[in-house]
Amino acid sequence: MPDAEPAVLDKTVLAELQATTGDDLAFVRELVETYLADVPIQLEGIADAIGADDAAALVRPAHTLKSSSATVGAMRLAGVARELEMTGRSGTLDAGGRDGLERARAEWRAASEVLQTWLAGNVSR
Amino acid sequence: MTATGKATGTALVVDDSSVNRLVLVRRLETLGLDVLQAENGMEALAVLGGKAGVVDVVLLDVLMPELDGYETLAAMKADEATLHIPVLIVSGVEDQDSVVRCIELGATDYLTKPINPSILAARINASLAAKRLHDLEQESLARQTALNRTIERQKEELSRFLSPQIAALVSSPEGELLLAGHRREITVAFCDLRGFTAFAEQADPETLFDVLAEYHRMMGEAITEHGGTLEHFAGDGVMIFFNDPILQDDHVERAVRMAVAMRARFAELSEAWRHHGYELGFGVGIAVGYATLGRIGFEGRHDYGAIGNVTILASRLSSQAKGGQILLSPRAQMMIEELVESESVGELTLKGLTRPVLASNVVALR
User: Do the chains contact at A71 and B65, CB–CB below 8 Å?
Assistant: First the structure.
């Protein structure tokens, strides 16, 4: 385990996205909303792969979840997704898979809550 | 990059993650590009199939459903239409192995997620520059090919009117110099038909043209075989010279061999004509001497011609030749006497020449 657990949401990531897109808050909001709509699809893919005990099928949804979570700054969820991707690549799911899915779901609940709060506090004018 | 610092071009973003696509599309639009999107390799190939000429750069994710990055890349590189479109692989920092594999498959470069805007701008500009260079090369190649085709067609067209040597000369680097005029020793062979004027008066136009066409074809073959330069056709009269524009050490011999070949073939032709009641004979005059050669004529109607006493002498000898005779000027006779069996026909008084000419007839080649 790392010394300091990353925050559920690294807010500097969204701030930087906003800064590098010409202070376009509407764009960052659209991105967050897209992310919030996208994660359940990836989680479903992960659950399907684990349910079917198909390690190879786990790689892609876990990979996508990892990279899109990192894009918005949901670093803890990105970390769990990364572990799931590694598990998928290892070729055997064993206990790590089901456990990882549960942790991903928990991180997802935490992340979506923080992101909803962020959305409420960053309304475009 | 244009003067305003904006890139211009069209990018295709291929990524199954809508979040990643959104960020990439936005960043590329900020750089000034038009952006097309695809959710997987299948969609990407479909977009490229319809708009291969439009897309200047492809940003390709590796892990995708339907058709992944490797397969998409391989398909692009296997297709002539998409082979030259730069492909930037978009991957995670941990996916260096896949990047290596993609570069081996022909990817131009890669970008790591999360996308750094400055690096993205640099990679995009490099890719667009490469693509533009390639497009320019293609355009220039296409123009060159079209130009070459036109030149070839013109040459072909020209060679129907001109002898092959002159058609080739016109398009050669030294052509202008030769066309401008030069002096050289040449052998001139002048051929015409005995009894042609009377035949032309009696024969109907179709017959006349048929006979001429047959005669010219036979002549043409013999001229080409011996490397002669056809100066002109004037009805039954044909003037050919040797040693110009292409130098030929054996120009006298070539002229004589050509004339002998023509005489033999003419004998067959005239046999057939005789059955139709046309009595035609073939006469040749051959002379050697210096002439001035080059472009003769006026704007819009030039010929490559030879001017000098040698052409007049050959023409006069030809008029004096009886059917089946090949008359040589004294110099021509001297230069090839060991190659031919000839007989003297005595001194001939030729029109326009002050002194009589001692001519000889070629009986056969030795």
Answer: no
